[in-house]
Amino acid sequence: MKDFMNSKYYMVLSVTVIALVVGVILSFVNMKTKDRIVEMYRQDFVKGLDQVLPAYANDPYSEFITVDNQSVYEAKTADNKTIAYAVQIISSKGYNGLITYLVGISNVGKVEGVFVVQHTETPGLGAKIIQEKFLTTFEGIADPVELKIKKDGGVIDQISGATYSSRATSQAVAEALSFITGNFKLTSSSELNSVNNGDL
Amino acid sequence: MSSFLMKLPPHQHGKYETKYTFFILSAAMLPAILFSIFYYGYRMLFAYILTMGVCSFTEWVYESIKYKKDYLERFLEFKGSVTAALIVMTLPPILPYYVYVVAALIASIIAKQLFGGFGRNVYNPAITGRIAVLVGYSSLMSTFYLPTSNILENGLFNITTVPIDAISMATTLTAAKETVASGGTLPILMTDTWLPSFLGFIPGAAGEVSALALLIGGALILITRIGAWRIPFACLTTFLVLATVFWYFNQGYVLDPITQVLSGGIILGSFFMATDFVTSPLYSKGKIIFGIGCGALAIMIRIFSSYPEGIGFSILLMNSLVPLIDRYTKPRSFGG
Amino acid sequence: MKIKAFTNGVFKDNAVFRQFLGLCPTLAVTSAAINGLALGLATTAVLLCSNMIISLLAKYIPKSVRIPSYILVIASLVTVVDLLMNAYVHDLHKVLGLFIPLIVVNCIVLGRAEIFASKNNVLDSMLDALGSGLGFTLALLLLASVRELFGEGSIFGVRIMPEAYNPFVLFIMPAGAFITLGLLIGMVNMILNLAKKARS
Do B43 and B108 reside in the same domain of the chain? Predict the structure, then answer.
């Protein structure tokens, strides 16, 4: 026995046995947690969709459509009428790495909501772009010219000391807006107004 | 058995001793300090006194704990007051007072005393303190003011609030960066900014605005020969040459060299901070290399980075190369 | 049972302050107290299991292949922790995600396995793991609390500093990690020296 334990066969055998055992344990844990992890990522995304879309009756996450290699998530009412679209925009214009946004555009071409999915901006400065106070300033804007920070001639109040991050956010929202207006037939707001006037 | 006697730096072989150097240096800084008080009001005077007090007091406390003797002599040295003045001069004029205190504490404790005290610090304390608050309080650091009246017109002791007669305004360098970033182009020669920039009637850091006042002080330093002329000369020459090259090939996107050299802290940095004999090379050849490095890095940071001004970073980066420069530029001794 | 195995790890041989081990996660994750605590606890969990398993297996593992075997055990433990955290504390995992796999190469875990667990019985090894893990967690928590306190004005997200305090963002930036760690190491050494002087 002592001889065997010093042989090279035992060396191979012991590492093999350990590898086998941990392999089995890992596959077991992976099997048990896999579904939950997928579900957690789904919930994360749906949380973002909830932020940028109005109340919807369908399941935008699984019913997404693909336009120009870009996934578009549609919010629909119970009678299957699309009321808003959400797209994911990845911007490289931030101060520090990529920023992923989820932008919701309503069917009249107005910004419905903006959500920062992921960013690596400077804490305390650029990281303030995730604050609601900043993101809500985009809501309701329909004119891409207005979707710029005030310094560049738009209406967005930039975060002081974080011009780059603020500018990146405005550009991403403008990009989402032009993508949706360019690819989908939207009800223009003037048309909607005339309908409303008729009702009155 | 014999023991070697090690003499600690500064190994200054000038005509004057350290105390005299200190006196000349303070006198040279005076025009720029007086201009900042005249231009931004008595609030600046209070900022200078506060920062000098914090620097001197912390260094005195630290050294008292460390050496446990000569309390009174150490106190009367007012160590760190030059550092303190430079901190205030390189920061925007109207800041909450705690920013000065934080910068002073970082300069005197972390940059100076923890490295072994005066004479042994690797990095220029004033710039270290300034960069720390620049990075740490960057939203405050981007607000500059252009006073519309001066101390002669409203000479009240206005030390607590922002003077009313001032408008918040971006510096020439920041404004130029913004213009280019948002897709605009710059005038090829900004001739109308040259005179105000030279005299100092522009928004900017408190002691950096007036090129004239700084040059008067710089001339005093050069005449009395306390600071090596090689560093500012090499630094400014390199800066101007590179600024001209970059400007020539990117007209409309880079400020013209005259505006470049008159705005920001390049003059203050090259005359008063790069020449600090504790953190600059010992030998002539090394001083020229050091100056060239400071100037080249400064203009490159200005043009290629997201920061509008680069002299502070460039001097700190070159500071860390000083031991290496000294090692390779050491003159050969006779018979060696 | 050696109680010293426990206390040494916490104070005298503290991984961060005395041995300078595991500095990469120490500097990188400690921008908020919760991150420091979570990474400390995750490391402790891995350390405890790895010390336990390795002290049991040490006799059967040939000397020449002990390092690969230990790494196999540690790596699979870390993967298990990673999967479990992703599934059950998903929000925390989003922040620490990058650093959990790095526990594999954290010198503390392999160091304790090699220095202690392979030469001692199970109970002592577990005590040693708890001590080292606790020491590491405390160090991370201390560093992260100081950084969060000055850099954000809060600890564990609870505002501590008065409203008027303007957070000094340098502390939660990488440079602040180095400065704070240096100052804390200096202070810990000073306290330990004083304690030594008082005893003698």
Answer: yes
Domain span at residue B201? 170-328
Distance from CA of B245 to the nearest CA of A (A): 27
Domain count, chain B: 2
Is some CB atom of chain B closer than 8 A to the CB atom of A160?
yes
Nearest chain A residue to B184 by CA distance is: A152
pLDDT classification of B157: cutoffs 50, 70, 90? very low
C170 touches chain B (CB under 8 A): yes
Q: Minimal Cα–Cα distance from C87 to chain B, Å?
A: 36
Q: Whole domain around residue A186: which residue ranges?
A: 1-190
Q: Of A152, A160, A164, which is closest to B306 when you measure between CB atoms?
A: A164
Residue holding tokens 């406390």?
Answer: B61
The token pair at B298 is: 């400064």
Q: Looking at the complex, does the CB of residue C56 fall below 8 Å from at least one CB of chain A?
A: no
Write out residues in chain A with pLDDT < 70, as ranges. Answer: 1-2, 123-124, 161, 187-200
CB B124 within 8 A of CB B279: yes
| CB-CB contact of B185 with B253 (8 Å) | yes
Q: What is the ipTM of this complex?
A: 0.83
Per-residue pLDDT reduced to its tens digit, B67-98:
887 777 777 777 788 899 999 999 988 788 89
Residue B244 has a pLDDT of 93
Q: Tell me the shortest Cα–Cα distance from C13 to chain A, in angstroms.
A: 31
Distance of CA B317 to the CA centre of its chain: 14
- Do B46 and B84 reside in the same domain of the chain? yes
Structural domain total, chain A: 1
Close Cβ partners of C58 (under 8 Å, ≥ 6 residues apart): C66, C117, C118, C119
Q: Which residues of B touch A160 (CB under 8 A)?
A: 139, 142-143
Are the Cβ atoms of B139 and A160 closer than 8 angstroms? Answer: yes
